[in-house]
Write a structure and sequence with these properties.
With 362 residues, the chain is of the alpha/beta class. The chain is 47% helix and 14% strand. It has 15 helices and 11 strands. 40% of the residues are buried.
């Protein structure tokens, strides 16, 4: 599943297939054939593994090869694991994009190109495209593309700009194709978006005056919009449980732009190279933890009694029952939050639970 935009549909094998009442491969072939008959517009189909398919040892990689041979050249069929057992559910997007990298055409142009990787809502993608055009960076592509038939090319002159922090496998696969990653913070808030755009501008030789001219109006507008939320959120104490791998960029945004106090920032997996620019911007005394030792994290949270906790759905209800205000971390993945225009929307996502709690108390 690509989280930021509903560009995908799903067809799910039913319980009888997993119970061994039918041959799983025969049933998979039947469902794929039925799906493609109903939806002849499908050009790219993923076989997504999950915990049950792994338990019954359904080999989706071999199934993808078999079905690709059957339905080519009209339909490409790829596979990846979406179980999220290793780290977190956002691994699904990383695995999906990494599975597509071998399908990307080789770049034949020697002109440098920019490849923005990580799912973005269409409106955010359009905003960034306009910004790049205004800066004079016109050879820009987004991965995943809006259409599966419009895959971007990649090669030694491709520069990668990560829009999401949870894509290490995708980056590794692109680097093996010769692309080079640009070190940058992630485009959350004014500071993050500015640093993200500046990394691209520097890589393409855009002078500082041009960069200031293009970005200044957007920065000023976003800062004005954030001012109202600084009153509500400034000084509030926040605790992050590990869930989406967005924890560190979000903590940086809340701390530096909204004056929130970071009680503890826990992330399920910390890729120090990809998050290096973010780590530089965190407060020196921040309590930063990697891993999912949730019992001990809960103990520390209960002792600290923060004003708001960012966590998964499984922890939110119990903590709310204890009188602790929570923010569902999954909403931060589903909602368009990147870029200048969305900075205030991102701040509001954290202000809303506190406003709700105040109304309930009243």
């Amino acid at each position: 599943m690509i989280f930021a935009e509903p560009r995908f549909g799903t067809a799910i094998m039913e319980e009888k297939d997993l119970a061994g009442l039918t041959d799983a491969n025969d049933e998979l072939d039947r469902i794929v054939a039925q799906l493609l008959e109903r939806r002849p517009d499908i050009k790219l189909l993923f076989l997504v593994g999950s915990c049950p398919s792994e338990v019954i040892k359904l080999d989706l990689s071999r199934a993808a090869i078999r079905l690709s041979q059957r339905f080519s050249p009209g339909v490409r069929i790829l596979n990846y694991s979406g179980s999220g057992i290793e780290t977190t559910f956002t691994q699904g997007e990383d695995a999906c994009l990494a599975s597509m990298v071998p399908e990307l055409p080789a770049a034949t142009d020697t002109k440098p190109s920019l490849l923005v990787i990580g799912s973005l809502a269409d409106v955010v993608e359009d905003q960034f495209k306009r910004m790049f055009d205004a800066l004079g960076i016109d050879n820009v592509a987004f991965f995943p593309p809006r259409k599966s038939t419009a895959l971007p090319s990649v090669g030694p002159n491709t520069k990668i700009l990560m829009a999401q922090p949870f894509l290490p496998d995708t980056v590794r696969a692109l680097e093996q194709r010769g692309a080079k990653r640009l070190a940058a913070p992630f485009p959350l808030g004014v500071e993050g978006t500015t640093g993200w755009l500046r990394a691209a501008a520097d890589a393409f030789g855009i002078d500082a005056a041009k960069f200031e001219q293009v970005t200044a109006p957007n920065r000023a507008r976003a800062e004005r919009a954030l001012a109202a939320f600084k009153t509500e959120l400034g000084g509030r104490r926040i605790f992050f449980f590990p869930d989406s791998q967005l924890e560190i960029p979000l903590a940086r945004f809340l701390s530096r732009e909204l004056d929130m106090q970071l009680v503890e920032v826990v992330t399920p997996y910390l890729h120090r190279e990809h998050l290096a620019e973010e780590l530089k911007l965190l407060p020196a005394d921040v309590a930063l933890t990697e891993g999912q030792d949730v019992d001990h994290q809960l103990d520390r949270c209960r002792v600290a009694r923060p004003d708001i906790v960012v966590c998964g759905l499984g922890l939110a209800n119990p903590l709310e029952a204890e009188g602790i205000t929570t923010k569902w971390s999954i909403e931060l993945v589903f909602t368009p939050i990147q870029g200048y225009e969305q900075a205030a929307d991102l701040a509001e996502l954290f202000a809303r639970p506190l406003v709700r709690r105040a109304k309930l108390v009243a």
